[in-house]
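Rather than argue in generalities, we have chosen a single entry, letters for residues, whole numbers for local backbone shapes, without further comment.
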Amino acid sequence: MTRGKRIYVLDTNVLMHDPTALFRFEEHDVFIPMTVLEELDAAKKGTSETSRNARQVSRFLNELIVAGNGHHIDDGIELRLPQGVQLGRRGKVGRLYFQTSAFVASDKSQRRTLPDNLILAAIVNLREQRPKEAVVLVTKDINLRIKATIHGIKAEDYENDRALDDFALLYTGVSELPADFWNRHGELRSWSERGRTYYEVKRRKDEDWHPNQSLYLPGDDEVEMRVLRLDGAKAVLQIVDDYRHGSHTVWGIHARNREQNFALNALMDPEVDFVTLLGTAGTGKTLLALAAGLAQVMDQQRYREIIMTRATVSVGEDIGFLPGTEEEKMTPWMGALTDNLEVLTNPQEGGAWGRAATNDLLASRIKIRSMNFMRGRTFLSRYVIIDEAQNLTPKQMKTLITRAGPGSKMVCLGNVEQIDTPYLTETTSGLTYAVDRFKSWEHSAHITLRRGERSRLADYASEVL
């Protein structure tokens, strides 16, 4: 078997997950079994993301065949990128092959006509036809990878859509400064402007900071800052506002820990257009985002209204179709919104009547929208909260973020430990993708909330269960 050149057999779920997977294997060849084409054809009808991807794969395949200029399909079709597709790929390109003949599997265990078994049988036949090339099955189906391994077929997960190799390497947005930070930066310039304190420091090699990154110095000289601006080797740091004490609250909410204080600073900053909050259950993601939104919509009138949406992925069994309008259909999915609104309206004066009036007022400024109808929309001067963002693919995340019009702010909330979408992992989630891609943009901020503030019962349960 020769080294280097390989032929990759793509499963249906890989193509429906990423239609551009056809062009992601550089100089290596790609093989599409007939079963995969049949499954794509069966999945093309509908308005879901997978149906759209299935149709896009069919269009790519048709364009490649047309561009082949009548060359015999047995000889393979050159995998040239279609017009309008940019993947940053250079160098040699492989060829695309299809299964062109039907056959009966020789292995008795393969004779059942299950799609997975037919794909494995096609791979066995392909290896017999091309014994000098390494044949690799690429699938996101763990069970199919196990079955392939049992039959001596090399199988891999599709990893091209990973935002990073290890989730532990994901940017947290918060860094602790060394105890000798001020001594290390003896030559620094400080000044005050509009009640805020700023420092200009010369960055060292180990200080790999990003715009709007939160920094803190613990101990007796405790200070909390954020990176306001990076200019070559210099950085401008700003002392953040303290939302933990006194009357300095956001819609009646105090920050209960350092990360929550950093989060409120990012959420309340009009210069930060995109905020991502990552954290386990009970860390206050939704409450902080909603409180900051209400303060800027109702009090400061910076935005017209709050728009809230989330990925409608069931944790348990599906309860079927829901009646009513778009907002009424989304209401059962918005339990987090209802629970947090109760917290935010509870301190209001006027008894039950006052709370009811407040709820009605807030309801008129908070709109619940379904993700299914976001394509083509543009939000002008809106404060958009995307909840449960860990269940979004990178493509869905792009679709949502690009809805932002002038004067809008996007806030993405999620917990990657609670991914409910098939074929998504911590490293391939759209939320992880967004955090990694936006960390160097001067108008974005990310905070990883680590400490739960729900209750001692919830904190203990998250540790031991």
About this structure: The chain has two domains: 6-156, 167-464.
